[in-house]
Amino acid sequence: MIPRSHPRAASLHIREKLVNGYRKGLVVEEGLLAHGRGEMFDYIIGEKTSKASYDAIKAAAHMFLLAKHPVISVNGNFAALCPKEVVQLARVTGAKIEVNLFYSSEKRKAAIASTLKKNGADQILGLDKRFSQKIPRLDSARRIVDERGIFIADVVLVPLEDGDRTIALKKFGKRVITFDLNPMSRTARTADITIVDNVTRGMQLLINMCKKMKRSRLDRKFKFDNKKNLNQSILVIKNNLWRMTHA
Length: 247
Ligand code: ATP
Ligand code: MG
Prior knowledge:
CATH superfamily: Phosphopantoate/pantothenate synthetase
Structural class: alpha/beta
Mean pLDDT: 93
CATH class: Alpha Beta
Order of helices and strands: HHHEHHEHEEEEHEHEHH
Number of strands: 8
Shape: globular
Number of domains: 1
Strand order of the largest sheet: 3-2-1-6-7-8
Low-confidence stretches: none
CATH architecture: 3-Layer(aba) Sandwich
Radius of gyration: 17 Å
Helix content: 40-55%
Bound molecules: adenosine-5'-triphosphate, magnesium ion
Number of helices: 10
CATH topology: Rossmann fold
């Protein structure tokens, strides 16, 4: 057990969730390494949600609630870290849940689906091959999507995603929302809205924001400048690095 008083208790608990996900067959070795990259950025952003990230969350809630066919794309890391939140966000926004993996395997898809079901998910797309479709400009397994989900979606949430897939989704005409702790990654720079925050903090904030905004009138002309927002996150990193090295 990690004592609550430990200075890095939050990040160690997140790590524990991911390792449990690995042991249950949800996460692959590469996912553990990708998490390490995220942890490094979380360390520098101070393990808290910045003002820029709140702004991006607000924009994401807007885009989600105005979407006709929103889809939440779930990979192993996301399922290990936020299974409850995935189901809650789908309920609040009416989004579909689709399992979509970089390193695809039927066994892992089934393990992820079972975790989501245990957390209350009803319908999970991406499992039944009869509904498989291909998105253009991507290699073999990674291009397979569900024709009832990502294939026809207008807005897709793809957290912790690789740049190639994000670029392919954009070229395919999707509006993309992502969570990515690295504001310089290709995914962060390609998405329409990048929430530079740990999914373990940001997902609950996004759910709360959607709940709140559902009760008010949505502005269809709402504009969001992702590049400007990313630059604000880069500034947070620069300032924190300066503080850490001059303390
Ligand atoms: P890209 O392919 O977009 O250039 P990359 O190759 O550097 O990015 P990937 O492994 O493809 O990295 O994607 C995983 C991304 O997810 C990384 O940018 C990493 O910082 C981020 N990440 C990892 N864990 C988390 C987390 N818990 N919350 C938010 N982001 C995370
Ligand atoms: Mg990558």
